[in-house]
Write a structure and sequence with these properties.
mainly alpha, G3P_acylTferase_PlsY, phospholipid biosynthesis, transmembrane helix
Length: 199
């Protein structure tokens, strides 16, 4: 239910009188909101989508339930991607997955977010940065508990398994973006430090 809250659609309709599903990529997530409605709306949707994953993952800890909180995070991710309020057509799960990590391990969330920002700066492409980051984050769930436990304290094979599944899911959801990357037509962000093509 939390994951199914379509932040981009709601903000677009209430404050901008636009349905973002009818513009840009037609996606309901953060990236398309930035493209269609601008930075203010995009930032709001980003935080709301992250919050969905964080709140959902925190529920078993708040109520003292003896279940791995990651399962609740996965439920929010599935709700975000296949929202019951939006004919099961939603976002690509990146922000809500980040929210799950924030609740599970704040230090790992900061590490993962830093990776995304780094690759976003290097590639200027949100989709490519998301996929590369997801792959490295998955590998990190195995390596960090051994070599950098201050970032991720313990090995959790459920986290690794979910990371693999989410990474594959993110890549599949970005299949159209991959085609545009190969053809050189994928939208890029101009940070003002170098010239990038915006199409």
């Amino acid at each position: 239910m939390l994951g199914s809250i379509q932040s981009g659609v709601w903000i677009g309709k209430i404050f901008y009188h636009k349905d973002i599903r009818e513009f840009g990529s037609g996606n309901t997530g953060t990236t398309n909101t930035f493209r269609v409605l601008g930075k203010r709306a995009g930032t709001a949707v980003l935080f709301m989508d992250i919050l969905k994953g964080t709140v959902a993952t925190s529920l078993p800890m708040w109520f003292g339930l003896s279940i791995d909180p990651l399962w609740f995070g996965v439920a929010a991710i599935l709700g975000h991607t296949f929202p019951i309020f939006g004919h099961f057509k939603g976002g690509k799960a990146v922000a809500t997955s980040a929210g799950m990590l924030l609740a599970y391990s704040p230090t790992f969330f900061i590490y993962s977010g830093s990776l995304f920002v780094l690759f976003l700066f290097l590639t200027s492409t949100v989709s490519l940065a998301s996929m590369i980051s997801a792959i490295i984050i998955t590998i990190s769930t195995i390596i960090l508990p051994i070599y950098a436990p201050f970032v991720l304290a313990e090995q959790n094979w459920l986290l690794t398994t979910l990371a693999v599944a989410i990474t594959l899911f993110i890549i599949v959801r970005h299949k159209d973006n991959i085609k545009r990357i190969k053809s050189g037509t994928e939208s890029k962000i101009n940070f003002g430090l170098r010239k990038t093509k915006n199409r």
